[in-house]
Amino acid sequence: MNFPGSSPMFDLSAALTAYLLFLTAVLGLVFGSFGNAWAWRIVNGESVAKGRSHCATCGHPLSAADLVPLASFLFLRGRCRYCGEKISPRYPLAETLCALVFVSLALRFGFTPETLRLCILGFLLFVLSLVDLDSCVIPNRFPLLAAANFAAFALFGAQPGKTLLHGLIGGLSLFVPMLALVMLADRVLGRESMGGGDLKLLFVLGLYTGAARGLMLLILACCIGLVFALLPGVRGKDAENPRAFPFGPSLALAAWPVLLFGDAFLTWYLGLF
Ligand SMILES: [Zn+2]
Fold first, then answer.
1. 6 in a domain, yes or no?
2. Is 100 within a domain?
3. What is the whole-number distance in angstroms between the Cα of residue 251 and the centre of ligand 1?
4. 66 CA → ligand 1 middle, Å
């Protein structure tokens, strides 16, 4: 609506969308920052509920000004304010990644319950990937929380094709063949080929993707994992099992494009025949 005297060039809906996207990005940065801290505390055996955030090197408690996502890192030029020790660029990069995930979901699905549902999943995948990278373990709470998120939205806001039964079929269609394959590989190789945490995560991702997109996700995750395995410093974080390889981040990264564009890709692909 244009009031007399107002500029006809000003599009309120476009401005509002831009504003909401900006808020989504800020929310993504805040959750990215929280996720960094949560993962760090899990890996280092500290409770997330107790104690203030502190510098990992000198232990000095961090003030509110040190905890502004991205801005603090840039302002302090990547160093601790108290001891001057370098802060890994991993933290601001991870925060930015979390913001990108949130914004991409909002752009694709709008400001809808679906975006909220997938942002919660994305956040859980984000934190479990950070933990898996550092410790080669995916704590059970992450697949459990992701499954609870799926169940809550399926029960209280059921959309066609996203009911509990659909999810269960999707999860099992990924989990069962993979379990058989892993058991076979374990026998042939004489060692654990894929961790139990990866299998549980695969089941939970199947809840969200269904069978067809789940297969897409698995193929993509293996490609990402292959590239990832060639990078230096990924293996050997687990002293008891130096050959252990964190597959969680590859699964999480593969889930991103599959959940965004998997449906569109399937429609296009099936249209070829
Ligand atoms: Zn410090």
1. no
2. no
3. 33
4. 11
